[in-house]
Amino acid sequence: MAAFNLDPFMRTQQERVETLLRESAERWGPAGTPPKLAESMRYSLLAGGKRLRPVLCLAFADAVTKSSTDTAAVRDAACALEYVHTYSLVHDDLPSMDNDDLRRGVPTNHKVYGEPLALLAGDGLLTEAFSLLASGPEPVRGTLCAELARASGAAGMVGGQALDIAADRAATLDYLLRLHRLKTGALILAACRMGVLAAGGDAAALASAVAYGEAVGLAFQIADDVLDVTSSAEAMGKPVGADAEAGRFTFPAVVGLDESRRMAAELVARAEAAVRPLEGADGPLAALARYSVERKS
Amino acid sequence: MAAFNLDPFMRTQQERVETLLRESAERWGPAGTPPKLAESMRYSLLAGGKRLRPVLCLAFADAVTKSSTDTAAVRDAACALEYVHTYSLVHDDLPSMDNDDLRRGVPTNHKVYGEPLALLAGDGLLTEAFSLLASGPEPVRGTLCAELARASGAAGMVGGQALDIAADRAATLDYLLRLHRLKTGALILAACRMGVLAAGGDAAALASAVAYGEAVGLAFQIADDVLDVTSSAEAMGKPVGADAEAGRFTFPAVVGLDESRRMAAELVARAEAAVRPLEGADGPLAALARYSVERKS
């Protein structure tokens, strides 16, 4: 059996997401939103990226409906997830946090618009995510707001960021797992759940989304850490493991590179198994699970 | 006829709000929310304040139901409004914004917890506002999320803050009115609307809330500006009007102190008239409208 061809699928889905994001950002017109604020929000939202969260959301919705004709609720869910992801990057890049000058190859929001407007652009993107979801149809709009808020709030993404800034080199694997389950895992899981819920999926589909989303969320983060180690090994000519010696708080630093890779592979297998009832033996969701660890950036 | 006695009413309502806020903050337990983040969120949320937005929300709900037995939807609406107000203060106080060291007589959030955690506490409070509303009963939870998101997003409070940081001394009265309609007016209006909607009020009650909320939102801000001028005149011994000469962008600076007071009084009269069908000749809402301009801080 030929394996699902991921590359053209990803390109098509990423273009689908770009179109949805551009259209949704037209809500921020000059009659309601100060133009400079809208420009700053659009700058970061439309700066590209993998669009993994909306792609997962759309893929689950498509798997549930057996079509790629998305409804307003599905489109809004996909966009709201990327609004929240983008706001978290804008705030993360601020001087008081990671103090990054570049993001996705272009200057960070505060480098272009200044810190005050970057802070507000982040606040705006977060709030507009809920505005978008809440403007959708009953009864799903309340459900989607609840899902997104839980995943991105104090017991989700924001909580994970708080664990991250408090992490030290003595932290344990348990701490690392909890940190990433909250910081990146919660929103990736929500992307899967929201795709099913927005598309009206049943309890079995939701259970697939939960098992898949938990596995892929963690696998994605482990792969990020592995990529960081191996690409610095190649690019910077320093031995693999230098990050671990420097006490950087990553999976390779805590459990080693081989164990990190083994964990990621096991999680991908678990994710593939979870969506087999939903899409058969080798569909886009299984391919996306592999992509989450095999990607080059 | 004896005028409604506002002082004991405000004390009672503020205590009612403090109890609701303390109870709602118990959601951020250590199993879900990192304790230091929860502490930082509680620090600012429970630091006191006038609680005008939740008090307005509860007063409208009480006027609609003719009782003070609030429902879960009303309680959540009142708390969510104060979460959003508090998050806006925490972010406003950050060094890159107003760089304030004190708020309500105690050190600002970032002075106690550092900038990164203060930023996250603000993000957390905003997100938890939607989490709280979205956890409520159908069908009103979607409506309340939509109201709060619209009022606090890019075409509401965040938009007003963006106009504020871009304002210069050449700005017009029209600019000032739009700035404050968004920056403070939108959330005060939402407080009134959400009280009616959470309590199941009819279209007439909602119309009262809109006319009242628009008037009180603006009157409150004009009073703030007037208070700033007059209390500095008394406290600092400098002549009234020094702020205007310094180019501070306030109502007294743009239209003068007398005209500012006249505008505020006219707005209060309009608000009183708007709620007469709902509560009769002299009820708590009329008293709250007067309070919004007659308060001492």
UniProtKB/TrEMBL annotation, chains A, B:
Q: Mind telling me which SUPFAM superfamilies this protein's record contains? A: Terpenoid synthases
- Any Pfam family hit: polyprenyl_synt
Keyword tags: Isoprene biosynthesis, Magnesium, Metal-binding, Transferase
Protein name in UniProt: Polyprenyl synthetase family protein
Gene3D superfamilies, per database record? Farnesyl Diphosphate Synthase
Highest taxon of source: Bacteria
- Which InterPro entries does UniProt cross-reference here? Isoprenoid_synthase_dom_sf, Polyprenyl_synt, Polyprenyl_synt_CS, Prenyl_diphosphate_synthase
Requisite cofactors: Mg(2+)
Q: Which family does it belong to?
A: Belongs to the FPP/GGPP synthase family.
